[in-house]
Fold this protein.
Amino acid sequence: MRSVHGQGVILGLVVLALDQISKGWIVANFHPLETRHLVPHLDFTLVFNRGISFGLLNSGSSMQLVGLGALLATIFLLLMWQFWSVSTRFPAFCYGAILGGAVGNVVDRFRYGAVVDFIDFSIKNLRLPFYSTTNWHWPAFNIADSAIVVGVAGLLFYQLHQSHSPKKVSGKRAR
């Protein structure tokens, strides 16, 4: 294993460990839908998400869940292939974060029958020039979800940077 891949694997394992430790603590110390206020706009609320992102398919049929499992397995295999094909540190870290988060959420499905979400972010009396509401609430999420988002954003940034950087020219002259 090349060192860039080893470092990506280590980051993925750290993400997985932090994710599982935090979810284990939440499940042991909270009742479903129990909320504890941390700081303004941030609470911990135990939610079991049986669907996909943002609670979609939360009450899905068994056929939908089988299809979801097949889709997730395919995405995981594609991510693994991409991870092993990179040769630089930054994308390896990004893939490590994504894979660690993905494995964390899959472990939840086996352990709890659903993904454990608990980070609950909201803003009361949000007023923007183009948007006004009394309450704005983001769906609950977890450390695995955060790692996936940061990893994907990092890969997008990396790809944009690569496409706009000058190409290196070989030292040989064309004859």
